[in-house]
Amino acid sequence: MDLLDLIDAVQSVADGVLFGATYSLLGIGFTLIFGVMHKINLSYAAASIGAAYASLLVMSVVQAPAVLAFVAAAAAGGVIGGLVYLVGFRFIPLANPLATLMSTVGLLLLIDEIIVHATAGVPLNYPALFSDVIVQVGPFGLRGDLMFVFALGCVCMVVLLLLLYRTRLGLATRAVSQQPTASLLCGISTTRVNVLTFVITGIVGGIAGAMTGAAIGMLSPLLSLPLTVKGLIVTVIGGLGSIPGAIIAGLIVGGLENAFQFFRGVSERDLYIMLLLFAFLVFRPGGIFARSAGRD
Amino acid sequence: MLELKEISKYFGGVRAVDGVDLGVSRGEILALIGPNGSGKSTIVNLICGLFPLTAGRVVLDGTDISDMPMHARVSGGVARTFQNIRLFGQLTVWQNLWVAQNSGEQRRQNFGRRWFGGSRGARSEIERTLEFFDLAHKSNELAANLAFGEQRRLEFARALSAKPALLLLDEPAAGMNAEEIDQLDDRIRKVREDGVTVLLIEHHMELVMSIADRIAVLNFGRKIAEGTPAGIQANPLVREAYLGTPETA
């Protein structure tokens, strides 16, 4: 391999790591909902894409700068998150391990169908920010739109961590995830915490959806399934319930994805990601930062 | 202040609690005793709302709280401890107390300062509680890393955090040594002096006879006796119910 190839490879991995911030956010969403409810919300990535579509709808009505798309996607994500809780969890028997899994699969399909119906399945252009900026670092060029996506992802993560570890709401959230019964008997309304968790993860998901759209320049209903799978892979590799794990795993998966694509081609790419997941499940089922002590 | 009116709880065919009438007056320490499986813990669970009543009503200060969700009963003034400890293991001792400050007044107090950890009032309350339970030096320790006795004290402290009017203690002395039980005795008395009504479930008879104003005895889900410690000790029905149960020897 000559030097130019190496530069291309590093460039490709760097792009992947920057885009990986999207996976990190999705992984955090899956992990947070699992943390408080001990349930997987399979509709999460589809809802995030749905929120990005909703922001396009807003942008088509109002003439506004492109940055507003992110705000609109965040707002739509929050609303959709609340609706997902209402439809997929509120009245579903939580004691049945399969019930909410099926209700969220239903919501995943529903959201996809709504998108396909509304757009006739045709991909739509998504506004990118700073797409004309390229920062040259030696032989490498960092794309402005990807750096914006990465920076936005980092801001979201910092805000989430502050919310979770520096506020009373975050404290209540962690209490509920550790001891739901005792939380109720300390006067914490677990329903309220659950709703807020869905709304907040929905907002994060909406931003992640907009980030996806901005990074690849378009939105397609075909995005929701691969994003669901990537989000879940990130959640598993990071360790279910671990936020730092989800952040790191998202960046790793993003980087490796592009590395595999560079060396083995796009058709084989996901195969190797799945092998990575397999390796983690076998050798490190607790994720990157496996907890020393169990919850409780 | 608390009235249980003909409360029953059936689990399938098992009558865990079967038509119990019980009144707790303001400021007293009422002990609920009885052999294992007689329905003591179930009554505590019914009062705090852990599961619904099969029949009967729970009335607190004239308000029927039978259908209130658990967390609402806490702001209504009912708090409890668990027989098997249920602390928030991955939160610090301080956070365990702060997160439990959920009475109406505390919520308002904490609201403005909810972002960065507690109003001044909340802080000083927590400090006082930590001092009282001899946990001040463990304030920043994770609850999971405490010794057993400390965890029991923290569980008691957390129950007091929401400033309850009625405190339900479910076997607080379980697994404690004689010295710890003495301290527990003192603390329960002190809590009562501060105006908290206490409903105590306990197997440790020395403690019960020492601090209870009144005792109610359960057997097979029914109340078989109620009265002063001296009266209960002399009651032939109670002796019969306990005959051969070693934990009361």
- Low-pLDDT segments, ≥5 res of chain B: none
Helix count from the secondary structure assignment of chain B: 10
Order of helices and strands of chain B: EEEHEEHEHHHHEHEHEEHH
Determine the mean pLDDT of chain A.
90
* Main β-sheet, spatial strand arrangement of chain A: 1-4
Intertermini distance of chain A: 52 Å
Quaternary state of this entry equals heterodimer
Rg of chain B is 18 Å
How many beta-strand runs of chain A? 4
Largest interface comes to: A-B, 23 and 32 residues
What does this structure look like?
The complex is a heterodimer of chains A (296) and B (249). Chain A is mainly alpha-helical and 296 residues long. Chain A has helices at residues 3-37, 44-61, 67-90, 99-119, 144-166, 168-178, 180-185, 190-216, 224-238, 243-264, 266-283; strands spanning 124-125, 134-137, 140-143, 218-219. In chain A, helix 3 packs across helix 4 and helix 6 (168-178) crosses helix 8 (190-216). Residues 292-296 of chain A have low confidence and may be disordered. Chain B folds into 2 domains: 1-77 and 164-249, Rossmann fold, CATH 3.40.50; 88-161, no CATH class. In chain B, helix 5 (120-132) runs antiparallel to helix 6. Chain B has 249 residues and is an alpha/beta fold. Helices cover 37% and strands 24% of the residues of chain B. The interface between A and B is medium-sized, with 23 and 32 residues.
Core attributes:
heterodimer, A: 296 residues, mainly alpha, two-stranded antiparallel ribbon, 4 strands, globular, disordered C terminus, B: 249 residues, alpha/beta, Rossmann fold, 4-stranded antiparallel beta sheet, 10 strands
SSE map:
The complex is a heterodimer of chains A (296) and B (249).
Chain A: H1 3-37, H2 44-61, H3 67-90, H4 99-119, E1 124-125, E2 134-137, E3 140-143, H5 144-166, H6 168-178, H7 180-185, H8 190-216, E4 218-219, H9 224-238, H10 243-264, H11 266-283
Antiparallel strand pairs in A: 1-4, 2-3
Chain B: E1 2-11, E2 14-24, E3 29-33, H1 40-48, E4 55-60, E5 63-64, H2 70-75, E6 78-80, H3 93-98, H4 104-112, H5 120-132, H6 148-161, E7 166-170, H7 178-193, E8 197-201, H8 205-211, E9 214-219, E10 222-227, H9 229-234, H10 236-242
Parallel strand pairs in B: 3-8, 3-9, 6-7, 7-8
Antiparallel strand pairs in B: 1-2, 1-4, 4-5, 9-10
